[in-house]
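Batch job 17 of 40 flagged for manual review because the log was empty.
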Amino acid sequence: MDGAIAANEAQNGADWKVGVDIGGTFIDFCALEARSGRVASLKVLTTPEDPGAELMTGLTLLAEREGFDPTHMTRFVHGTTVGINTIIQRKGASLALFTNAGFEDVIELARLRMPDMYSLFCSRPDPLISRDMVFGIPVRMRADGSESQAPDLTAVERAVAVAKANGALGVIVSFLHSWRNAAQEASVKAAVARLAPDLFVFCSAEVWPVIREYERSSTAILNGYVHPRVSAYLTALEERLKGLGAPARPMLTKSNGGLMNAAEGKHACVNMLLSGTASGVIGASWLARQAGEDKVLTLDIGGTSADFALIIGGEAQFGTGELIGEFPLHIPSVSVSSIGVGGGSIASVDAQGVLRVGPESAGSTPGPACYGRGGERATVTDAMVVCGWLGHSEMAYGQLSIDAGLAHRAIGDLAARLGRPVEQTAQAILDIAVSEMFVEVEKLASRAGVDLRDFTLMPFGGGGPMLGAFLARELGMKRVMAPRRPGVVSALGGLVADLRGDFIRTIFSPLSGTSLPTIREAFETLAQEGRDWLAAQGHDAAAQLNLSCDMRYIGQSYEIEVVLSPEWLADGNTAAIEQAFHRTHERLYDFHDPDGEIELVNIRLSAVGAGPTLSFPETDEIDVPASPARRLPVYTGLSIETVDLHDRQTLVPGSTFHGPAVVVQEDTTFAIPAGTQARVDRHLNLLLTFPE
C-alpha cells in the first residue's frame, strides 16, 4: 500500500471494519476503511491444530501490507467452522440426556426416515448421545401445560451420579410439552446445577421452544455437543482481540445470515453452526443487489465442499431442516445445499476400477500435492494444474506457489492405474466434480420449483471461479457474474450483515376470530423479546420486526411458513391471514382448498437491526478490448489449445475478451471455456455470457 495513504488515514483517524471467515483450507479477510472507502483483502492458510492462530497471522499481515490498525477497528465480524467441524468430526462433549421415563428412545427413533430413500445401502447416523447415557425421569406435563406428575428428584440424583461416572460433561433436559410450559425442565436444571455444579445444562425449551419432541431435543443436543469447544474458542478470540487493543465488540455470523455478539455465541452455539456458509450467501446477496441481478444461483467452492443457494429478488432464501453433518438443524437458517466436492477433494480409484472424487479432502494440511506441503494424493486442484488452467501466478495473496511437477506426479499415479493419459485423467476428475455438482444443483432447483435458465451463476470462494463457468454451461445457464474479490465474499458477508434474532412460540390453535387474541398476545411477547435482544447486542436504532406463522390445513401432518403483516393481527383481519396461507399453499403445491379449515402451529418473529450502510466505488464503462498478458497451453477436454491469460488487475470497466481464457488474480483463478463472451462491468464484476 502507498505509505502516503496509510499516513493520511492515521492522521485523519481511520475507521476499519473487518469481516473474517474461516473455511476448511483458508481464513479470509475483507477489511474496509470506511472513511476512504478503500477495501483490503487477504487469505491465510488455516491452522487446524490451533484454531484462531491464523486470525492473528492475518491481522498482522493486514497491518504490514495495508496499514491496518487494530486500535481503529470499530467493527469485527467473524464466521467460523468450529461448531460444524466439531459435529462432522464427532469431537464434541460427552452428554447425558434426561427425558421422560418411557421416552428414552426418542433420539434413536427420530422420524423413522432413511437419509436417502433411493439408496438400499444408506443408514441413519449414530446419535450424538449413546443409549446408555439417556435417562428416563418419572415426570409428565399434559399437552395443555398442566402438571400431571412432578419431577422425581431422587431419580434425577441417581441419573446425575451415573452420568458423571460415565464421563458426561453436560446434561440436556428435554421433556414432553415443555414448549407449552417449561417449568419442569427448569426445575430439573436447577437440581442438576445443585447436585453437580461442574456440569453444564441446557433445556430444550430455552434453546428452541417448539412443538415436536424429536426436533426440540435434537436441536438442544447439537447446542450442548459443541458448547465446550465453541465457548473456549470464543473466549480465546475475545482475549486475542483485547490484546491487540481493538475497541470493536466481536460479532459472529449466524446460520440465519444475521449477527450476534460473541458473549451470546458461547451459550447459543447452535445459532452459528452454519455461519460460514450463510455469510457467503449474504455477501453474494449484497453483491447481486449492487449489480441489479434479480435471480442468482450462488456457487461457493472452498477446499472441502461446494455450497449452492438461490437468491431471488436480491434476497437469500431461508428454511429449516438444513443438515449439519448428518443431523438436521431445526432453527431458521439460510437455505444452502452442500456436497463434498472442493478444490482439495481427493480423487481415487475404487476396488472396481472406477474413478471417484471426494468427499475426503486434503484440507490445508497437507493440502493438494501441487501446494508442496506434503500432500501426495491427487485432488481437483491438481487436475486444474495438469490441464493448464491453474498455476500461472502465486496463489492466496502470495502465500502459495504451485508446483506443477508434483501435480503431474499425483495425477500420473491415478492415470497409471486407469491406463489413460495424464491429461485425460485430469479432465475426467474435473468432469466428475462438475457432474456431481450438477446433480446437487438440479435437486435444489426442483425443490424450489425454479428454472435455472432464468438465473445468473455467481461463483465465489477460492475454487468457485475455477469450475463455475463449466457448471453453468452444463446447466444451460446463460450468464455468470464473478465478483471482483470472489475469494473473500464470505468475509464480505460479515461486513454487510444485519443483526438478526429469531424467536418462536407454538400456539397450536385453529385460525378463527376467537384465536386472534392469543395470536396477538404471542406476537407482542415475541416483539418485546426481539427488541430486548437487539438492545443486548448494542443496537439502539429502530428495529424491523418480521412476522410469519407455520400453518396447515387441519388434518395435514406438516405445516408451511406464511409471511404475515402485523397490521392483520391488530385489525383482526382473519380473511387476510387465510388468503396469505392459500396463496402460499398454491405457490408451493399448485393447489389450495378455499373451504379447508386452517390450523396455526407456530408464530415466528425475526427482529432485525440494520447493519452499516456500505458501498464500493463504481466506474463508468469504456468499451475496450482487453490485452492478454501472454498466451499459454491448456488442455480443454479434447486437445491442447493456446489460450489468452489476463491479469484481473489490468481489466477495467468495459474491458472485453473471448474464451477460452484464463484470468489470474490474488485470491483465485478464472477458467473461461471456449465460446464465452467476457466483459467487466462498472462494479468490476466479470460477466460471462454463453451463446444461444
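Reviewer: the log was empty due to a logging misconfiguration, but the result itself is present. Residues 1-11 have pLDDT under 50 and may be disordered. Unflagging and moving on to job 18.
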